[in-house]
Amino acid sequence: MKQLLTEKPKVLKMLEVDIPKIEKSTDVLVKMKAAGICGSDVHIYHGTSPVATYPRVMGHEIVGVVAEIGKDVTHVKIGDPVIVDQIVNCGTCYPCSIGRPNICCNLKVRGVHIDGGYREYLVAGEEALHLLPRNLSFTDAVMIEPMSIAFQSCSRAEITKEDILFILGAGALGKSLIKAARLTGARIIVSDVVDERLAEAKALGVSEVINSKKEDLAAKLKEYTPWGPTVSIDAAGFPGSLPLLTDLTCNAGRIITMAFLDEPSPVQQFKITAKELDVRGSRLQNNKFKEVIAAYNEGKIAIEGAVSHVLPFAEAIKAFNMIDAGDPSIKKIALSFE
Ligand code: MN
């Protein structure tokens, strides 16, 4: 089979290797059908991920069909279309013991710490597999993973319909957050520096948008919500975004961070103390695939329409070159194994 190996940062190789074998009786061999390229994959490729190790087969937005099952597998059968959970956890550490495997102390993420899905076959335990909706194409189904990240963030924020949610950034993550947050009924305000993204945000049903390059963000927010947003989610993640949100967020509000930003941001502890702000991280997802798939099956959420480019897996290296070239028409690339 073919597999795309990131030998070290910026060195991608398409190699011919053996198909992996089922080892445990609850293992499943998955024949890949599609894999998304995420911003975090681009970081791993560039060598700017603070967590990845090399050499690495990237890919954590991975869907396929069950090709072979171990003798004790009961949840899936051969031919089932599935998405593979990216999280592999130890089950014994403190976060695992309180039901938070996504921040396991021995966390292994497929495509980051262990090999992921940029290959024609992979083996995963049956507990990692979720059945795909039948009416969703494989290339669209890769978006279930980014949506699960947005669901996680909204659940960490404990958003209710009484909240006024401010989302900083209307890129791919910001737009997934809007879709997820719309399910809560909260009023949503979004800022970005690109008008086209703000127009897309508006079309997704947010009440107010602010172009922070053209308008005074703090003044506009004050106009829309005198006390400030009750919840702020950082979907931009630049040095300075966290201190900015401690300024903008209402007293007693929650701030959610999502970036893997290594550079320090100078935060005035005074702001957090005096306003009793809750600053919470949101990483990966905790059992959110089921919720996303259920919301899709109930017609509450759209998964389609986010993938802008589909390339054959054989052209994966070209796909990364296209991203590096900075073509603005690229919103999301899905690699297809068909
Ligand atoms: Mn992703």
Brief description of this entry?
The chain is of the alpha/beta class and 338 residues long. The chain is 28% helix and 25% strand.
Task: Provide structural commentary.
The protein has about 350 residues and is of the alpha/beta class. It has two domains: about 180 residues, Quinone Oxidoreductase, Chain A, domain 1 (Alpha-Beta Complex), CATH 3.90.180; about 140 residues, NAD(P)-binding Rossmann-like Domain (Rossmann fold). It is built from eleven helices and 17 strands. Strand 10, helix 5 and strand 11 form a beta-alpha-beta unit. Helix 4 crosses helix 5 and helix 4 crosses helix 10. The radius of gyration is 20 Å and the shape is globular. The structure holds manganese (II) ion.
CATH class wording of the largest domain: Alpha Beta
> What is the CA–CA distance across the termini?
13 Å
| Ligands bound, unique | manganese (II) ion
Based on helices, strands and strand pairing, what is the structural class?
alpha/beta
Principal-axes geometry comes out as globular
- The CATH homologous superfamily name of the largest domain equals Medium-chain alcohol dehydrogenases, catalytic domain
List how many beta strands DSSP finds. Answer: 17
Identify low-pLDDT runs: none
Order of helices and strands: EEEHEEEHEEEHHEHEHEHEHEHEHEHE
Kindly estimate the percentage of residues that lie in beta strands according to DSSP. 15-25%
Write down the CATH topology of the largest domain.
Quinone Oxidoreductase, Chain A, domain 1
Largest sheet: 7 strands, mixed
| Overall pLDDT metric | 97
What's the gyration radius in Å? 20 Å
Helix content percent band: 25-40%
